[in-house]
Amino acid sequence: MTTPLRKLDHSFFRRPAIDLARDLLGKILVHCVRGREYRARIVETEAYVGEHDLACHASKGRTRRTEVMFGPGGHAYVYFIYGMYDMLNVVASGEGDAQAVLIRAAEPLDNWEADLSGPGKLTRALRIKRSDNGRDLTGDKLFILDDPGYQARIVSSKRVGVDYAREWKDELLRFFDAKSKAVSKPRF
DNA sequence: GCGTCGATGGCA
DNA sequence: GCCATCGACGCG
Questions:
Q1: Residues 10-69 of chain A: which lie with beta carbon within 7 Å of strand B?
Q2: d(Cα A129, Cα A52) in Å, to the nearest integer?
């Protein structure tokens, strides 16, 4: 008999994105949809640290798209890009401070065969869509479990695909678990 | 193995 | 006209 894993609550999310990005490694993302429960261990994240971060969508100001990032932490920011992909982010910090963590890769659990090594692949396999934008991550449909028994080996690198972000493009704000093989392609 | 490129749509 | 992407294709 094992004790059930505890669901992360709002206090966990209301911190700077850089801390949240590191602490989300090793946690378990859960999505319940159409009678199924998809569970995956988070192994790669990126921090987008606020309006001054030129790689962060919030640097464009408060718009219909970026609105949920300006809201309280612990909600999903899901946006559409490249005409094909939905990206899952976890809103960090508090109301008015627009920070978020992009979930880039995970390892499937429960003998579920899936390739979750990339932000687009992950949302597709977990059936996470734009319609999940704004969802409270402490609810019953989309949430994250703590797993105190798992210790990630945390390594940092530059964020992927943000070469336009001037002095922010080389910041070491991508984090991954060096123990995982599911990290998305470029490791450094 | 690596570089290039097209798909496809919302946003500024 | 950009993109916080992916996969297919051409190389050799």
A1: 60, 63-66
A2: 27
